[in-house]
Amino acid sequence: MCFEQAGIENVYVSLTDDNCSGVDTIVINVEACTSLAESFLNKLSLHPVPANAFIKLQLTETEPITAYSIFNLQGQFIHSEEVNKENILNIPVSHLKQGQYIIYVKTEQGVYSAGFVKD
Q1: Could you tell me the pTM of the whole model?
Q2: What is the rounded CA–CA span in Å between residue 87 and residue 105?
Q3: How far apart are CA 48 and CA 59, in angstroms?
Q4: I want to staple 96 with a disulfide (CB 3.0 to 4.6 A). Which of 54, 75, 104, 118 is the partner?
Q5: 6 pLDDT exceeds 60?
Q6: Contact 35, 100 (CB under 8 A)
Q7: CA torsion sign, 3 to 102 to 62 to 64?
């Protein structure tokens, strides 16, 4: 499946199992979906790694951060928060279990990701 434009898409899923069938709708919000361009590389600074109490996020450009989401390496959602267009974020991570995580940072220009380790 390929989406050529950003926006909301409805995907209809039909499933049949043992003569029972059902249809459901999945809503997909497509955001800035492009190939990995050089302009997206090295824009996100995250430290310290490994982290204990907090991580500090900063974009190398002056793009304000509007939200972030944290997932573990199994793809399980851990935490998400909308922020008020901050350029630098100090995110508490002391409540996280030891392990590796991926953070997605949303701006008005796109979504960036980085990995970090919680000690």
Answers
A1: 0.65
A2: 11
A3: 15
A4: 118
A5: no
A6: no
A7: positive
